[in-house]
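Thought: the user wants the 3D structure for the chain below. I'll pass the sequence to the structure tool as-is, report back what it returns, then summarize two notable features.
Action: structure_tool
Action Input:
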Amino acid sequence: MKRSLSVILVLTLLLSMALAACKTAENNGTSEQGLEAADNEFGFQDVPVTDKNGEVVTDKNGEVVTTEVPVEYVTDKNGKTIAKVLDKNGEVVTDKNGREVTVEAEIELTTGKKKTTTKSTKTTKSTQPTKSTTATTKGNEGTTEKEITTVPIDKDKVPTISQARKSKDKKAVTFSSKDQQIVKSMLEVPYLYKANYENADGVPINIAAHAAIWMAEREGLSTTSYASGTIVLDLFKYFGQTVVNFKVQVNDKADNDKLVYNASSDSFSISAFEAKQQDVTIERIEYLGNNNYYLVTAKVKNAGSKNKVYAIIQKNKLDATLGFSIKALKWS
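Observation:
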């Protein structure tokens, strides 16, 4: 899909709606009863760009121009899945009348499968990594381009660490020095080495808490209180999946008291950020195919008894400055 400068119009519109929003607290309880949204899924969807008159923008070929926005998938009282558009803080965007802005959901929460829809927009698919810039590791070119192609959700298969290591089809690639530094920083999230996980098993609450603190630090806000949407959406960006029951379980399962969930205000308190712990030195990055998955092999220091890490990462656009998600980890 070709995008034009008209994309700015929809972003401006969304921002203005967010500023005019009358926000209502979703959770008022002081216990788990107030956490109905804890298991909701988050994602990103392409939505049509509209101009200042509310008309859908098309390109020179007459095709609808779209832009990507974060959404929260929820079910209404009839069990239908709807997608609520979120602002940069993870809050639901409302229009000038205070109504929540929604778009047609691309998934069904009850099945986890992508809906079959007919669209007049172009899509592209690729099973090859896009080109890199600076060569600093051995191998073929890796991926650093902004436009990342995807495969349909039912074809998206995240390999396990074991599958990736045994794969005979993986190819050594070169990442730019910038992308290598990003991956290195993500693997150096303080105390991330305390748990292993595979994508299909879900993200352990403990390491998610450390990732949440690190992601919140990147927000650069002068505050100790964070809207729950900010934290939960940041976690979705980091791991590329919803951390199930994070709000419900973090106070009991995290191994530090720096991050606390406050049910009464549906917010998180972060009393202090965490100092760097482990040092990671990337040895090898290998392309795994499918949906821009890579196997990272790295040396580790200052991580207790751990001296090696294998990670499955995905190149995506969930976070503009990171550009990657950590899909699986194995420390040894």
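Final Answer: Structure generated. The helical segments are 7-19, 161-166, 177-187, 205-219, 228-239, 246-253. The chain has a mean pLDDT of 79.
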